[in-house]
Amino acid sequence: MGRRGGTRNLLPLAKRMRHQPTETEARLWSVLRAGRMAGAKFKRQEQIGDFIVDFVCFKARLIIEADGSQHLDSEADKARDARLGSQGFRILRFWNNDVLGDTDAVAQAIYTELTINA
């Protein structure tokens, strides 16, 4: 049994992913870490059930995902989002090029979700 109700233990994979972030994940983490985003505490590469999410704030029930083109119209992502949504999570997805090209706009969207749409 994995962490947080999963049937698999994905902790070793999550740890490896934390130690080898993509450029996009590193950029987002610099915005989200240490309560910098409206005081919210985010964790990165965290297992929830049988999924590893890029970033999660459990208190706000908010998941942030940074996606590349392989996620375009992904049925697996739709099913994953539905499953996580049924557990009370809200999911914000951002394209990698948006995170890298306009980090401030991405940060503003996350801030808005945390403060206005909570």
Automatic annotation (TrEMBL):
<keyword id="KW-0540">Nuclease</keyword>
<dbReference type="InterPro" id="IPR007569">
    <property type="entry name" value="DUF559"/>
</dbReference>
<protein>
    <submittedName>
        <fullName>Endonuclease domain-containing protein</fullName>
    </submittedName>
</protein>
<dbReference type="GO" id="GO:0004519">
    <property type="term" value="F:endonuclease activity"/>
</dbReference>
<keyword id="KW-0255">Endonuclease</keyword>
<dbReference type="InterPro" id="IPR047216">
    <property type="entry name" value="Endonuclease_DUF559_bact"/>
</dbReference>
<dbReference type="InterPro" id="IPR011335">
    <property type="entry name" value="Restrct_endonuc-II-like"/>
</dbReference>
<keyword id="KW-0378">Hydrolase</keyword>
<dbReference type="Pfam" id="PF04480">
    <property type="entry name" value="DUF559"/>
</dbReference>
<feature type="domain" description="DUF559">
    <location>
        <begin position="12"/>
        <end position="114"/>
    </location>
</feature>
